[in-house]
Amino acid sequence: MAVTISGVTPHSPAARKRIAAGDILKSINGHAIEDVLDYQFYLSDGRLTLCLDTPHGERTVTLRADKQGDIGLQFDTYLMDKQRSCRNNCIFCFIDQLPQGLRESLYFKDDDSRLSFLFGNYITLTNLSERDVERIIEMHISPVNISVHTTDPALRCRMMNNRFAGDALKYLYQLAEAGIALNCQLVLCPGYNDGDALSRTMEDLAALFPAVQSVAAVPVGLTKFREGLTELRPFTADEAADVIARMEGMADRLEAEHGHRLFFPSDEFYLTAGKPVPAADRYGDFLQLENGVGMIALMREEFYAALEAAEELTRTRRLVVATGVSAAPLMEELVAAARAKFPALQAEVKTVVNHFFGERITVAGLLTGGDLIAQLRDVPADEITVPRCMLRREGDMFLDDTTPADVSAALGVPLTVNDGDGAEFLRVLLG
């Protein structure tokens, strides 16, 4: 396979060698180039020999990358290939629970191992080939983030509605044996992969330590758009407490044996169970923040450290902190602590209920601009702030395609976006 060059950066090493758009890159130092992983991996070789197909025939070019490790070639897509989609039909899939009418990109089910390495996406292993696994091992692409859910092959097939889902677990063991670092995710559904099934999964993954470096469990997210889908329900407080007890017990055992805590319930389990979230030092390097693991502990630690060092209130105005149901108690705690030190601070927390996806969705990251507008319209404020997690990666749009500017215009109040870490949140509070 080869890839077509769509453009060349002016004055780059490739431009100086007169490589042009439309040329086809076949290989670098004799290695065939199929996609971005091959390209970036072999660019690190130093002196590079490129084999190209041009309108005038095959051409060989020798050059070196610049100080940034680039040679200036551009391609139609970042992956230099089509993004791989999911082959499963998981009973808990959030995308299957989206309403009609959202932007098209939200309905794409990603399951691409290259994006796992490049952007931290999670993969199920079900669309990998033996060659894909060999390449990961050969290039030592690490870490790889894997949606395991359960290590019981039959249960995995049932939950993912893919008869090959159990067999695909063999790649988990191959990668671990080769020393590839693995972060694992378990989406837990009551009555399916919790309880004894969860204990079995943890035992199996613990046996793969130290290749498996973290395992997060998150509760299934259920929107109001589940007509025709598998009947699922949220965790009860007692069931959430059982998940915590099992995972903390196993984590304690591994820490005693290896000095490393491997298993982490997401913050949402603690909130559901009505239990305090552990302190920040229980989360190590916070490898599973994107799964909502340790976010409360880290934000609390960052906030109080910054508050201790803060010396003055820079600007006073009526500030409204908009957040979801789950995060509201933490935000109220932090705002109260700031007001205790700076009595002139005028800030209050407003909890926004998720009417768009349904009230069972309580995380701030899934709130929409429409719900902000509907529920904050009559709230007196000089400024409203929301966490960046409410917006897509580019930071410009909510899930319902409204923008921060749309929300600001509808409410007649400036809307600011904070990065969500504790120190940044305090800076927003203090102006």
Question: Outline of this structure?
Answer:
The chain has 431 residues and is of the alpha/beta class. It has helices at residues 13-16, 36-43, 113-119, 130-139, 153-160, 169-177, 195-206, 237-258, 267-273, 295-309, 328-341, 369-376, 404-411, 422-430, and strands at residues 3-4, 7-8, 24-28, 31-32, 47-54, 57-64, 73-74, 122-123, 144-147, 182-188, 212-219, 263-265, 319-323, 347-351, 383-387, 415-418.
Topology:
Blueprint: E1 3-4, E2 7-8, H1 13-16, E3 24-28, E4 31-32, H2 36-43, E5 47-54, E6 57-64, E7 73-74, H3 113-119, E8 122-123, H4 130-139, E9 144-147, H5 153-160, H6 169-177, E10 182-188, H7 195-206, E11 212-219, H8 237-258, E12 263-265, H9 267-273, H10 295-309, E13 319-323, H11 328-341, E14 347-351, H12 369-376, E15 383-387, H13 404-411, E16 415-418, H14 422-430
Describe this structure in words.
The chain has about 425 residues and is α/β, with parallel strands linked by helices. The protein is about 35% helix and about 15% strand. The chain has 14 helices and 16 strands. Strands 1, 3, 4, 5 and 6 form a five-stranded antiparallel β-sheet that branches. Strands 8-9-10-11-12 form a five-stranded parallel β-sheet. Helix 11 links the parallel strand 13 (about 320-325) and strand 14 (about 345-350). The chain is globular and about 75 Å long. The N and C termini lie far apart (about 55 Å).
Calculate the mean pLDDT score and round it.
92
The end-to-end distance, rounded to whole angstroms, is 55 Å
- Sheet bearing the most strands, described? 5 strands, antiparallel
- Number-wise, the strands total 16
* Gross morphology: globular
